[in-house]
Amino acid sequence: MKLGIDRFLQSEYTRVKGKRVGLVSNLTGVNQHLEPSIDLLHQHPDVNLVSLYAPEHGIRGDAKEGEQIDSSTDPHTGLPVFSLYGETRKPTPDMLANVDVLLFDLQDIGSRYYTYIYTMAYVMEACGENDISLIILDRPNPSGGLHVEGNLVEEAFRSFVGLLPITNCHGMTVAELAGLFQTEFGYTCDLDIVKMEGWSREMYYDDTGLAWVPPSPNAPSLDMALLYPGTCLLEGTNVSEGRGTTKPFEQFGAPYMDGYTLAKEINALQLPGVMARQASFVPTYQKYDSEQCHGIQLHLIDRDVYKPVSNGIKIIHRIAQLYPNDFAFVESSNGRFMFDLLAGTDTLRNAIKKDNLSSYFSESTKETAAFLKQRAPYLLYQ
């Protein structure tokens, strides 16, 4: 198993010899021996690394979700760090003024809500506008490359947690997504790819032999990544998704819930591949900070049959049924619902409110089929 960065450092570095190189990365940019790509490229005699570009969570991964990041200087290399999650999310001409080629080396989580893939889209757009080459150093999709599930993002609900019309679970690597973005969605640039070696579509992250590096502070494990495409939707409700605990997106609840009842009700749904257990917790920040919450922890029993999106939706629907006077979708100050931005549509929220999911699932099944057909030409691995 060789990552894109491993192959680049071994032989593909000749693509940038004699050029000024910028790197879009963070703490997830490591080789198979957990050595940071930043340091390896900075020390490489034939790579002239001149600048760094930081996505959400910062260049060293220590910023919380949604926290704005300022441009800075990296204390370990002395290189300038340009923030792509602050005043701008797209590299400006000034940020790219001294660069001939950009490398992109970020570990995605495999779900469309994760902002790293949209940082990549904006980087592609900026490279096209500024006549700069872009090389994607590919990494595994933690959930593998087979499972695809969910609806497509509608134009009216595009945001940085759902910028482009892809499904909740897309089953693609970042390099495969780059090909899709360029050809299907118009993010045109001089794009090159360094593929992985030894990865195939049926492989989960723990099949690769690679150590898990949390892509963000609330992504501590592979189980979290597998559950996340469904449980992330809880961010748009008044249910704590477990942020501020040791099991974010695996456990969730609220002060108004009864965890024993909820666990019994969810297990009665007989959702494929998962079981629920009563859990209580006290978040250390965000929703219900320092308050005791009651709810459930989801335990993956068979990840090959688990359907994260549909299971997550059915769980949220059951919570809404059990607690009609307490459960709510959170409305932002501008009157929009975060749930709709995550879902990529208001159809799902309205279906839950109307207590009827059948039409939503019927339509999303069609959209999944359409996306499977659309993505097929861009798959790089068997």
Offer a few descriptive terms.
alpha/beta; seven-stranded mixed beta sheet; 10 helices
What does this structure look like?
Helices cover 28% and strands 14% of the residues. Helix 3 (116-129) packs across helix 4 (174-185) and helix 5 (222-231) packs across helix 7. Strand 3 (72-73) and strand 4 form a beta hairpin. With 382 residues, it is an alpha/beta fold.
Nearest-angstrom radius of gyration? 21 Å
Strand content: 5-15%
Q: What is the 3D form?
A: globular
The number of E-state strands comes to 10
Order of helices and strands: HEHEEEEHEHEHEHEEHHHH
**Unreliably modeled segments:** none
Helix amount: 25-40%
Please state how the strands of the largest beta sheet are arranged side by side: 3-4-2-1-5-6-7
Main sheet record: 7 strands, mixed
Structural class: alpha/beta
Q: Give the rounded overall mean pLDDT.
A: 96
Task: Tell me the span between the first and last alpha carbons.
Answer: 15 Å
How many helices in DSSP terms? 10
Give the gist of this structure.
The protein has helices at residues 4-10, 37-43, 116-129, 174-185, 222-231, 259-268, 308-322, 338-343, 347-353, 358-375, and strands at residues 20-25, 48-54, 72-73, 80-83, 101-105, 133-137, 190-194, 251-254, 274-281, 293-300. It is an alpha/beta fold.
